[in-house]
Amino acid sequence: MIGKLKEIFSDFFSNSEDEDKSIGIYGPPNAGKSTLANQISLDLTGEEMSDISEVPHETRAVERKEQATLETGDQELEINLLDMPGISTNVDFKDFTEHGLEEEEAKGRAKEATKGIVEAIKYLDDVDACLVIFDATEDPYTQVNVTIIGNLEAKDIPILVVANKIDLDDAEPERVRDAFPQHPVVEISAKEGENIDKLYEEIVERLS
Fold first, then answer.
1. Which is more confidently placed, 145 or 96?
2. Which of 29, 33, 68, 93 would be 107's cystine partner, CB 3.0–4.6 Å?
3. What is the pLDDT at residue 105?
4. Torsion angle defined by CA atoms of residues 84, 155, 132 and 204, in that order, rounded to the nearest 10 degrees
5. What is the CB-side half-sphere exposure of residue 195 using CA atoms within 13 A?
6. CATH of range 2-207; options 3.40.718.10, 3.40.50.300, 3.40.190.10, 3.40.605.10
7. Residues in Cβ contact with 119 at an 8 Å cutoff, skipping those fewer than 6 apart
8. C-alpha distances in angstroms, 99 versus 13, 56, 93, 96, 105?
9. pTM of the full structure
10. Of all helices (H) and strands (E), which one includes residue 132?
11. Which comes out higher in pLDDT, residue 74 or 45?
């Protein structure tokens, strides 16, 4: 699998003069961004890169896995993988108290999450391509999701939409396809590793 991944990402960036390329993983909170980032990071480096929690906004600052080296034949490529904070139009500290956090800690977490959202938006100027991940058990056609896609489209950033959590019984990935028919959609389970190879293949086919 590692060999295939190396070949795929090498093809993905083979037409560029830059040595390092940045792939941003965007999406709303708790869609599985960090789980996917960890899966890719494990494939590339053998180690995870982000903390995971059921509490919203566990990732409140951009997590980077820099210079993940891919080798294929006599060629070598370095990639910067960026796990972005979850994008939200409103961060309420009560979202955290509902998960057992004390009010003071929850307010601090909400402030950090808001800063993280601003940071993630600023990073749009620095990414070369984006994986936009949505929870296939939730309604994808929301203001937040439409805003994420719209901002990427406005900057002409290559997009691959990922419908995550297809391992769950109530997953309806077809809703993601219906919401964003203008973009290719890959159905995966980042947690179980289902269809991850298909995701890598689509990155090359659709974004290169």
1. 145
2. 93
3. 80
4. -110
5. 15
6. 3.40.50.300
7. 61, 62, 85
8. 41, 9, 10, 5, 12
9. 0.80
10. strand 129-135
11. 45
Helix (H, G, I), strand (E, B) or coil at 101: coil
For residues 4 and 47, the model is more confident at: 47
- Give the whole-angstrom CA distance, residue 78 versus residue 55: 32
Indicate if the pLDDT at residue 84 is higher than 80. Answer: yes
| Ramachandran category for residue 156: left, alpha or beta (phi over 0 → left; psi -120 to 50 → alpha) | left
63-72 and 75-83: which strand pairing?
antiparallel
In percent, how much of the chain has pLDDT > 90?
43
Only one residue has tokens 């993940």, namely: 68
Q: Greater confidence, 79 or 143? A: 143
> Would you state the pLDDT for residue 98?
72
Residues with Cβ within 8 Å of 36's Cβ and at least 6 positions away in sequence, in order, are: 25, 131, 133, 162, 164, 188, 190
CA distance 99 to 101: 6
Place of tokens 């370095």: 78
Cα–Cα distance measured from residue 208 to residue 131, given in angstroms and rounded to the nearest whole number = 13
Segment holding 125, helix H or strand E: none
